[in-house]
Amino acid sequence: MLKEALYHRPKLNWAYAYDEKTLHIRFRTKRDDVEQVKLWYGDKYLPWERMEQVELKVLTSDSLFDYWETYIQPRYRRLVYGFDLISGDERLWYTERGAVLTPLSEHVGLFDFPFMNKVDVYRTPDWVKEAVFYQIFPERFANGDPSNDPDQVQPWGGKPERDNFFGGDLQGVLNHLDHLTELGVNAIYFNPLFQATTNHKYDTKDYLQVDRHFGDNAMLKKLVDECHLRGIRVMLDAVFNHSGKTFEPFVDILKNGADSPYADWFHVRQFPLNIVDGIPTYDTFAFEPIMPKLNTEHPAVKEYLLGVAKYWIEEVGVDGWRLDVANEVDHQFWREFRQVVKQAKPDAYILGEIFHDSLMWLQGDQFDAVMNYRFTNIVLDFFAKKKLDGYHLACDLGGLLASYPQQANEAAFNLLDSHDTPRLLTLCGGDKRVMKLAVLFLMTYTGTPCIYYGDEIGLDGEGDPDCRKCMVWDKEKQDLDLFTFFQSAIALRKAIPALRTGSIKFTHAMEGDLLLTYERELNGERYLVALNRSEDIRSIKLPAGGWSVALSSDAGIQITESKDTEIQPYGYMVLHKENEA
């Protein structure tokens, strides 16, 4: 056994409370290097003879390591523990002291999980695990009220630019809720709705007022109420890292400089505010002078922003917050933000925009989840860009799953495109067959899927601003076959709990191969997903048992145990095996 590969530490993603009674414990070994991992565990205040054993199973693997896991329910909500490793004739024990040859025989030196305190349990909202989100960029979704159009509004459907307007508003969303209901989504993520000067609204002027070109606060309340009647949750975008240049405190600093009562609301390096060699003399989002960075450590700033978070939940009834540029805001602010939001609505969803490893925000004291761009990049590299084969897709996703506690994986916000990226169809080279495979993977994988508006009817587009085209509402110009596929994939996910919270195991993911199969299982219900990204007809041999077709690209497919099952180029199928219990 390679000792250097062995790893465990208490807390974080290695030993954590999944609920008030259940503890998840993980251990890492070199891939295919260890045959058996056992956990010795017990209460440190009881005699050694009362210690118990349980065998760990491989949760997932990446290219270097196997990640083992077990679930236990300590009788007294605390325990000490060590690991017993076996490979052939070799046997090691692993404790806080590392790998040793001496068998475990006393509590001293074991790992310690002191107590499963109720307040420390990392909880995510149950409804998020059932959700399929739909992202709406409000200015481009639908113009329902021309009376609130911006000056020089352009005809609907024109070429999107960084500074032009087409008149999308909340009334437009309200007018087209039937589209969302028909599609099957049950949650909306709105890009910013509050007063701002730009079409994207990430330069906030007033955090307590809906932008006048979208409607007003009463209109948003009406929309949220109608969504709730339809079983649709609503999540807003919180831009708390920075404000806009027209935000009153910043306007005051521009006027009064260091003498402004708001001088400490921002991170100013030099007065008067200026731009030197293209760099503002104050901190901003990126180096955008119209987006000055807020000082979220300042008591008055904190009070104002936390009041905003509470206001829209209590007064309008929104169900969650997506947090823009979340990694550049201090952790303490997010801890207090969570307390305020969860007090106002205990099952509100708190989602951070972070593009990289996010473990430090996912310990139960800050976010429920993050926008899972690590997932996005891996999936696109396999389906859209052909940079990965099946083996490396499985390895990369395995490493990602092992990076976080199960709660974080179940509530992760999985997306394939957004207002910040080229559209999925464009990324897939305009090939709707490839797009369908990627979407089906999204709908059958762990985490909460999100669809970017218009993907379901074939909207394409390069990066910003081209990815922010106006939604197409003329049925004759919509791809209705693609819409029907999205409907089917969404309905499948909503109908099958195993596709949402079941275990996942890749059963065919080979080097140099673009055929992918994996199983999802929950309470004895098994589903097998097969996706053929290649140009060739492929055959798969099904595990023994009676399998039935839940969804397939081949309407005439026949499943028999006597022969292999063929899957056509760019074909897919989801098979169900009845519970044998």
Helix-strand blueprint:
Elements: E1 15-17, E2 23-30, E3 36-42, E4 52-55, E5 57-61, E6 65-72, E7 79-87, E8 90-95, E9 98-100, E10 111-113, H1 126-129, E11 133-136, H2 170-175, H3 177-183, E12 187-190, E13 194-196, E14 204-210, H4 217-229, E15 233-238, H5 248-256, E16 275-276, E17 279-280, H6 299-316, E18 320-323, H7 331-344, E19 349-352, E20 369-370, H8 373-383, H9 390-403, H10 406-411, E21 413-415, H11 424-427, H12 432-443, E22 448-452, H13 480-495, H14 498-501, E23 503-509, E24 515-522, E25 525-532, E26 538-540, E27 547-552, E28 565-567, E29 572-577
Helix pairs in contact: 6-7, 8-9, 12-13
Number of helices: 14
User: How is the largest sheet built, in terms of strand order?
Assistant: 20-19-18-15-12-11-22-21
Unreliable runs = none
Report the principal-axis shape. Answer: globular
CATH topology of the largest domain: TIM Barrel
Q: In terms of quaternary structure, what is this?
A: single chain
Could you characterize the architecture of this molecule?
- The protein has an eight-stranded parallel β-sheet. Strands 3, 4, 7, 8, 9 and 10 form a six-stranded antiparallel β-sheet that branches.
- The two termini are 37 Å apart.
- 24% of the residues lie in helices and 25% in strands.
- It has four domains: 3-120, Immunoglobulins (Immunoglobulin-like, Sandwich), CATH 2.60.40.10; 126-241 and 296-495, TIM Barrel; 242-295, Alpha-Beta Complex (Oligo-1,6-glucosidase, domain 2), CATH 3.90.400.10; 499-577, Golgi alpha-mannosidase II (Immunoglobulin-like), CATH 2.60.40.
- Helix 8 runs antiparallel to helix 9 (390-403) and helix 12 packs parallel to helix 13.
- It is of the alpha+beta class and 581 residues long.
- The model has no long low-confidence stretch (mean pLDDT 96).
